[in-house]
Specification:
This protein is 62% helix and 3% strand. The protein is mainly alpha-helical.
Length: 362
């Protein structure tokens, strides 16, 4: 990682784009009398997704069933788990769900139900990824294990030629790996001298993290082992399948926004400067996909409107479809690229082609 994060210094017309798009989006909320946070539409979404995630577990614990039926329910849990992460937890940890901090903390706290840690996620995601999108060595989202190459500045290995074939299998390990990686992230941020860690206790954070992961394992592995007739290996298979289903969805959605054709990966100069205004940098490194698909927008928490999310992370995802035309129109006016893949198929194809490019197979 660089000694210090990069700085963004762009020409005047790029700075004008940033100030103009912010002013126009603010004007939209003022003119429509709409708040930037979520409204009542979020409530049924939270209920539906939490039910989709947890109700199948309750059914499995109370109703005897064949293993194959339980596996079907586990798949549903994985879908619900991913939906909670994208549509409930994500906005909460960005402070975008409500003007009341406790509501954001409550919704963001669903991260603990998923078995992960909210604080380290905010440091990595809200801080590094959102501030320095697609910058090698800073944005950990493009710094996967060595078998994958998401950055054109990372070392190229022979095995990468096949990453467009096996990448999605590795996406399936995302949340399982995070169960352990949270400890590494906590230790790293505690030792880094990061101002965000001042006033916190590493010992307390470590104990809380162990307890959270213990409760997660107890609920989703221990209870089925105790209260059902399934064998330990059947329960373990279900636990892994739940996480794998969630992880494939999350990993794919994340990469469709930044590791696709047209999403740049700028590198700071020797002076640590990226010669682009920050707002323009976000458009150059980010892509929307299937923005007109209502069910996808609903399920992913607006993460298919990634451009709007990166420019306005504290605005609820419920408003992204409304402000997207403003952003796109302003980008066209200032000659700033607005990268959008029209549908899910096009986005997946672009991601696979980009993986081939980065792997040296294209």
């Amino acid at each position: 990682m660089p000694a210090s994060p990069p700085r963004y210094i762009g020409p005047q017309h790029e700075r004008a784009f940033g100030s103009t798009v912010r002013a126009r989006v603010q004007a939209y909320f003022k003119e429509t009398g709409t708040g930037t946070k979520a409204n009542a539409r979020l409530v049924p979404k939270v209920v539906v997704l939490m039910t989709l995630f947890l109700a199948p577990l309750v059914v499995m614990l109370l109703v005897p069933m064949p293993a194959w039926v339980a596996l079907m329910l586990v798949l549903v849990m994985g879908v619900g788990m991913a939906g909670v992460g994208m549509s409930v937890m994500h906005d909460g940890l960005h402070g975008a769900s409500s003007t009341r901090p406790w509501v954001n903390e409550l919704l963001g706290g669903t991260m603990y139900v998923l078995g992960s840690d909210a604080f380290t996620w905010k440091v990595q995601h809200n801080g590094a990824h959102h501030t320095h999108t697609n910058v090698d060595g800073v944005d950990q989202d493009i710094d996967p294990p060595e078998l994958l190459r998401f950055s054109e500045h990372a070392p190229l290995r022979r095995v990468h030629r096949f990453q467009h074939i096996y990448a999605f299998l590795f996406y399936g390990l995302l949340t399982l790996v995070k169960l352990g990686n949270d400890f590494v992230s906590l230790r790293r941020v505690a030792r880094s001298g990061d101002a965000r860690y001042q006033g916190r206790s590493y010992a307390v954070d470590l104990v809380v993290m162990v307890l959270v992961k213990g409760v997660h394992a107890g609920v989703f592995f221990g209870l089925p082992l105790w209260l059902t007739d399934f064998t330990w290996w059947q329960v373990l298979t279900g636990f892994v399948l739940m996480h794998a289903t969630c992880s494939v969805i999350l990993g794919t959605v994340f990469q469709l926004a930044h590791v696709v054709e047209g999403a740049e990966q700028p590198k700071p100069g020797t002076d640590g400067v990226i010669p682009t205004d920050w707002a323009v940098h976000e458009l150059l490194t980010t892509a929307n996909f299937a923005p007109s698909c209502r069910w996808l927008t609903w399920y992913t928490g607006g993460l298919n409107h990634q451009v709007e999310h990166h420019l306005f992370p504290s605005v609820s995802h419920l408003h992204y479809p409304a402000i997207a035309p403003i952003v796109q129109r302003t980008a066209a006016e200032f000659g700033v690229p607005y990268n959008v893949k029209p549908d899910l198929r096009a986005a997946l194809g672009s991601h696979v082609r980009r993986l081939k490019q980065l792997g040296g197979a294209a």
